[in-house]
Amino acid sequence: MLELPEVEVLKKDLEKEVVGKRVKDVMVETASIVRPYHRTRPDFVKALEGRRIEAVRRRGAALFLDLDEDQTWIIDPGENGTLLRETATADIGDDTHLAVTFTIGGAIHLIDTSKDPTSHTGVVATGDALAEAGIEETSMDPLDDNPTWMEFARLMKHHAMPMKQLLTDRSVMLGLGPVYSDEILWEAGLAHDRQSETLSTQEVRRFYRAMQEVIAAAIKYRGSTLEDASPDSVVDEEGETAEHIKVYGRDGLPCHRCRSTLVKERLSKGVYTYHCGRCQM
Asked: Which of 47, 87, 209, 280 is surrounded by the most beta carbons within 10 Å?
């Protein structure tokens, strides 16, 4: 899953590589990825082909490529999608649902390994792009909105929910998923099921600092899924985690802070959390 750090890295890469270029060819392998915005694949292809890319924006884990004539190309990777920058002649893989090439070279491939892709893409009026992508105005982007710790305190008291849920609920917080929610909570020393409204002022400040540090470190390391432009897992085939990952995928190993054994806990069907039962409270 692409989370905020990976998408921020992709945004910066795309700003350098595709802004100013025109879309040449559009290939859609799976019709469902365009249906939220277009009735058919040809409708999407017609809306995108020949368009010039003017700018690239990000909101949470969704990318917005602003086009000429006040149109915006939305790319939402969903729960299982990733975006690869390729050459124009790169082979189309089995899990590639969208391939877009540009007139001056280069291509973007949207990959989704799930049986029923959760990725979505479409071209909409620029002024309607956030609403069309299902992003609420009240949802906080912890990087772009640059909130203060006091704003975080008000947010947590208002929503009054378990911390893991608060971090991953798209109506509250944008761009964070299973990896970085666990990393932020571990860095802050907070339990996943701690009620957000019970945090003291000191704990809110610690949480605020942890979120900033974890996101900054993840961007520095290009996230946990973008290394070598490959949709690898945060945990590789040998069971090793990315250098900046301290808790996610490390169940059974010692905690970096207190040396207790890290655990993997099932929260609901298909939803897990990794944490230290000793130093996260």
From this structure: 280
Q: What are the residues whose beta carbons fall under 8 Å from the beta carbon of 20, sequence distance 6 or more?
A: 52, 53
CA–CA–CA angle 137, 76, 235 (5° rounding): 115
Q: Which tokens sit at 34?
A: 């365009």
* List of domains in the chain: 4-132 (3.20.190.10), 149-275 (1.10.8.50)
Q: What is the pTM of this model?
A: 0.91
Contact 70, 127 (CB under 8 A): yes
Q: What is the pLDDT of residues 122-180, one digit of tens each?
A: 999 999 999 999 999 999 999 999 999 999 999 999 999 999 999 999 999 999 999 99
Q: How far apart are CA 94 and CA 84, in angstroms?
A: 14
